């Protein structure tokens, strides 16, 4: 590194360190900061609906005021009441940070231990306006995936992390920092729970009221666990899904000229446009929020924007004819698009779509996750606030039209799958014809987990990820090379099962080309699908690179909760569990406990995520690789457990891929002993 560059980095580091000292201040005790209003230049969360009565509103206000010295209560009371009445929640906008939040280099954060600094870095990344969907409402993605419930919680958490040493653990209840508690260096520095509600009260209505009261929150998956890495986190999985959908449904390895239609360009769904380009097809993604659409366009993930259906149909025809690799963002409602494609089929016998799905935020369907086609977005937002029952009725009518159009195109030869966003579940509840019988997990169309990702998870492959805390792009490139070298070495194993070899080959291609696709949004992070063996070896080599100085800073390793064993979700991650246990949540809970016992830097357990509140239990972790022998030992133990737990459960449910994977794992580790299922002769049950 040249002296000029070194000097520049040193100056930037000092500047960041000085600026970030504000994070040590916590809740003001002497004077309040000036009152602030929401920015007009960024997107904001929809108004949150609740049904609090007068006494409950008073309780919500008391709950908010208790964060502050009593001398400020009179000033803050009317302010907080206005937020509750206007936005449906008390976010405490007065306490919006005056500094820009982003993933600064780890050395910039004012902390006494590196583990605490790594958590601060990840929190700031989740709230970076370039990353977060609604940053001023502390929402990272998914419409309601909160990092915290209010800004007081942010400031308290940052203060605790700045003071923490390695003999303390920070405990967080649904965004609320309960405090620092005595602990041990080899145990987690933070333990996070989000939405842990008594099951009988885990309904959407209960959630809206409890969130308004400030006593629980919806952490989505990696929002409330501080492990989000921007839409890159889902690009890889979406790419795998689109490519395998082409293979499975169309019999094609080359998707040139094929059209994939879906909806949503938000925090997670934004990956669809980029994944389609990587897959080599034509994507048409509908999005009602122009700000979200423009954000993906500015990032280069959406290549063209169309708002006129006539022009859009002509553009699709041209792209199909020329076999272009293209992503088009349609600014409009997905139902209008589907219905127009039906018209083209019925009038001209021209099927303009080959593959279809949906990534509207149907887990959050009553609060802006799905906009009905009958009204404009602005009209919908007003109805949502003023007449929730009418809004629900409009949604149901829209979903019925939505499914009717999809059904007609599917009958013509288009292949559609549910992307695990509760689309088919909510459509079924609305009365749409999705072909569900009773409480069956099967609908007319498969979940992508049932048909594609489930077998990949059962082999132990899932979305492993890491973050270079130096903030250097050069470090990220080094980690890409390290991961590629690990995979290449594994592929030299002549005893590698062919089905596993195929996964490694696909992922070797991904990691070699990842740098070309400009995937980084926010932190210098990478995602790579890998199994137990690959994750352990990559972590080992990354830790070595930190130790010997090839990497200029520590590395945080993590994963999406949407993984082999992180999530129990009967309509998504565990929808291919067929032994009747798909509605149980032992795996996710045990996984969180197990990663904590094995030395994770932080752990999280959530109710909700992906398919919605009360529909899923999921958890995640972060582990700081600081180059120490201790970090290496933790990574071996933690990653071995993290994957084997889910593979063992999937094996016990009868999955052949999981049976293969867990037997391989037991051969590699003689301390691992798993109960294997015995085959049952189905002829015994013939009458």
Rg calc: 25 Å
Number of continuous helical runs: 21
The share of residues in helices is 40-55%
Beta strands, count: 17
Largest sheet: 9 strands, mixed
Report the β-strand fraction as a percent range. Answer: 5-15%
Structural description of this entry:
With 687 residues, this protein is of the alpha/beta class. The protein has helices at residues 3-20, 54-65, 73-87, 114-126, 151-163, 204-213, 232-250, 271-279, 290-298, 309-322, 334-348, 377-386, 388-412, 423-430, 448-458, 473-491, 498-513, 532-548, 586-597, 629-652, 656-668; strands spanning 139-141, 145-146, 168-173, 176-182, 190-194, 259-263, 282-287, 304-306, 326-331, 355-356, 415-416, 462-468, 525-530, 555-559, 567-568, 602-607, 617-625. The strands form three sheets. Strands 3, 4, 5, 12, 13, 14, 15, 16 and 17 form a nine-stranded mixed beta sheet that branches. Strand 8 (304-306), helix 10 (309-322) and strand 9 form a beta-alpha-beta unit. The longest helix has 25 residues, at 388-412. The radius of gyration is 25 Å and the shape is globular.
Describe the structure concisely for a colleague.
This protein has 687 residues and is an alpha/beta fold.
């Amino acid at each position: 590194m040249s002296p000029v560059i070194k000097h520049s980095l040193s100056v930037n580091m000092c500047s960041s360190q000085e600026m970030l000292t504000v994070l040590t201040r916590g809740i003001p005790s002497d004077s309040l900061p000036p009152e602030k209003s929401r920015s007009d230049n960024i997107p904001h969360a929809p108004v949150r609906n609740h049904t609090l009565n007068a006494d409950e509103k008073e309780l919500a206000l008391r709950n908010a005021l208790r964060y502050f010295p009593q001398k400020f209560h009179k000033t803050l009371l009317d302010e907080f009441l206005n937020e509750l009445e206007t936005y449906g929640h008390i976010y405490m906008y007065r306490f919006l940070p005056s500094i820009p939040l982003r993933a600064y280099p780890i050395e910039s954060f004012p902390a006494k231990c590196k583990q605490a600094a790594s958590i601060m870095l990840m929190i700031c990344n989740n709230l970076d306006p370039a990353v977060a969907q609604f940053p001023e409402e502390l929402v990272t993605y998914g419409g309601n995936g909160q990092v915290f419930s209010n800004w007081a919680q942010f400031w308290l958490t940052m203060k605790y992390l700045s003071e923490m040493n390695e003999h303390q653990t920070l405990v967080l209840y649904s965004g609320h920092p309960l405090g620092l508690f005595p602990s041990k260096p080899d145990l987690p520095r933070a333990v996070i729970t989000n939405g842990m509600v008594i099951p009988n009260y885990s309904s959407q209505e209960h959630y809206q009221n409890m969130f308004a009261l400030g006593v629980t929150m919806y952490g989505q998956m990696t929002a409330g666990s501080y492990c989000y890495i921007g839409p890159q986190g889902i690009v890889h999985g979406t790419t795998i899904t689109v490519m395998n959908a082409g293979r499975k449904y169309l019999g094609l390895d080359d998707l040139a000229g094929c059209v994939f239609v879906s909806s949503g360009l938000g925090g997670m769904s934004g990956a669809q446009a980029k994944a389609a380009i990587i897959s080599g097809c034509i994507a048409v993604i509908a999005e009602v929020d122009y700000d979200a659409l423009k954000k993906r366009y500015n990032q280069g993930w959406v290549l063209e924007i169309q708002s006129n259906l006539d022009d859009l149909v002509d553009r699709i025809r041209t792209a199909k004819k020329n076999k272009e690799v293209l992503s088009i963002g349609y600014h409009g409602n997905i139902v209008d698009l589907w219905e127009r494609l039906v018209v083209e089929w019925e009038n001209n016998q021209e099927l303009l779509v080959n593959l279809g799905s949906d990534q509207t935020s149907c887990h959050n369907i009553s609060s802006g996750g799905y906009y009905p086609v009958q009204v404009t977005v602005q009209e919908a937002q007003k109805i949502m606030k003023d007449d929730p029952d009418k809004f629900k009725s409009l949604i149901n009518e829209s979903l019925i039209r939505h499914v009717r159009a999809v059904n007609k195109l599917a009958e013509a030869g288009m292949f559609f799958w549910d992307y695990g966003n509760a689309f088919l579940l909510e459509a079924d509840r609305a009365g749409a014809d999705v072909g569900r019988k009773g409480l069956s997990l099967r609908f007319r169309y498969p979940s992508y987990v049932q048909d594609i990702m489930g077998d990949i998870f059962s082999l132990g492959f899932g979305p492993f990820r890491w973050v270079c805390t130096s903030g250097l792009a050069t470090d990220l490139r080094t980690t890409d090379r390290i991961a590629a070298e690990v995979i290449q070495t594994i592929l030299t194993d002549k005893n590698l099962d062919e089905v596993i070899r195929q996964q490694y080959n696909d992922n070797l291609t991904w990691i070699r080309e990842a740098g070309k696709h400009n995937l980084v949004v926010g932190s210098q992070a990478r995602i790579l699908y890998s199994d137990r063996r690959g994750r352990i070896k990559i972590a080992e080599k990354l830790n070595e690179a930190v130790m010997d100085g090839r990497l200029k800073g520590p590395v945080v390793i993590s994963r999406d909760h949407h993984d082999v064993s992180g999530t129990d979700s009967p309509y998504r991650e565990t929808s291919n569990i067929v032994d009747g246990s798909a509605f149980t949540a032992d795996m996710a809970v045990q996984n969180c406990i197990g990663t904590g016992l094995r030395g994770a830097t932080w752990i999280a357990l959530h109710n909700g995520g992906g398919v919605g509140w009360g529909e899923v239990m999921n958890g995640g972790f972060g582990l700081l690789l600081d180059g120490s022998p201790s970090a290496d030992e933790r990574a071996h133990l933690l990653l071995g457990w993290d994957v084997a737990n889910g593979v063992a459960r999937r094996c016990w449910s009868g999955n052949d891929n999981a049976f293969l994977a867990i037997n391989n794992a037991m051969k590699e580790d003689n301390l691992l002993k798993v109960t294997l299922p015995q085959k049952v002769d189905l002829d015994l049950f013939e009458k």
